[in-house]
Amino acid sequence: MLHDRILVELDKDASERRSASGIVIPATAVLGRRLAWARVVAAGPSVRQVSEGDRVLFDPEDRAEVEVSAHDYILLRERDLHAVAESSEPASGHGLYL
């Protein structure tokens, strides 16, 4: 990865969602602008706030898709991210940060 680019893989559960009552909402349903979570696979040398394995929140409309070794990934810039969640539980016990 070059400069401030980040390669992410969409979460497996990003395709379908469930409502509070348990109704399955397919990915094709349009509910307005909705942000998506993904896992960071690789990050360029200029990326400062994100590391490999972190979960990131981004706008699916601001993305470029790429296929590498028969896997679909999304290429983003660090400035296109809205939030970062640590990949593992912090030792302090304060939970995930956003």
From TrEMBL:
The keyword Protein biosynthesis does not apply. Keywords: Chaperone. It comes from the Bacteria. The keyword Nucleotide-binding does not apply. InterPro entries: Chaperonin_GroES (IPR020818), Chaperonin_GroES_sf (IPR037124), GroES-like_sf (IPR011032). Coiled coil: none annotated. Belongs to the GroES chaperonin family. This is Co-chaperone GroES. It comes from Sinomonas halotolerans.
